[in-house]
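Narrative summary of target 7.
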Amino acid sequence: MKKLVIFDLDGTLLNTIADLAQSTNHALQTLGYPVHDTAAYRFMVGNGINKLFERALPEGEKTEANVLRVRAAFIPYYNQHNADLSAPYDGIPQLLDQLQSQGLQLAVASNKYQSATEQLIAHYFPTISFRAVLGQREGVPTKPDPTIVHQILEATGIAAADVLYVGDSGVDMQTARNAGVTACGVTWGFRPRTELEQFAPHHIVDFPDEIGKIALH
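Modeled conformation, tokenized:
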């Protein structure tokens, strides 16, 4: 049995794509740039918001200065609207309750900026006592760098061998590999199963209750 389960946030615990799309399109429109369909954002997210904005900007406009302009328009809007259309995936609240009741420690490791990560976790999972909720912070490299996982292991005092890392993207599978923890890919998120398979995770699951079986085995 594992002692700690670390979850990615976007595409793993919460379906946030519509709010991310709406807020990015708001920022692009504010600055006079063309917008994108919500479906296109499934392949723009996952590497932090600066990379999202770079991908969303038109060719020839992907400068650092423009990324920062989009960011300045995005953050105030997203902070107000990040729970308009988002929701936990079916079965996720029940999974978290089950793991918590069985005595497993839980944590979040996200490339979403820290304040929004904390805000969404508090809003959607108020009864879950996460040991650590870490997002993207200044001076800390984003996933797939394993620093965020190492910080959670340090905070919990749990060894890598006792950890299950759950995420929906190749970035997550690389993060788990780089941190030396057991990787579990989920197919209900933003990226296709084929992307997960490229990184040969220990597990790929189609339903949240399968995570419980793996973690508690």
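The two ends are 5 Å apart (CA to CA).
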